[in-house]
Amino acid sequence: MTMIKTRTGTELYVKDWGQGRPIVLLHGWPLTSDTWDDFAMEAANTDADHSRNRR
To answer: Keywords in UniProt for this one (predicted)?
Structure first.
């Protein structure tokens, strides 16, 4: 599990795939970042994808 810390100290869980130009994937309530797994794995072939869980 990868966590990042914001400037305000909030820790967020993120998933990273691929390298290159980033794409940030956001899900809506009541879903999780798992919603993007299939898409992110396909897109990671050409871009770097980042999805996070909402707080």
So the answer is: Hydrolase
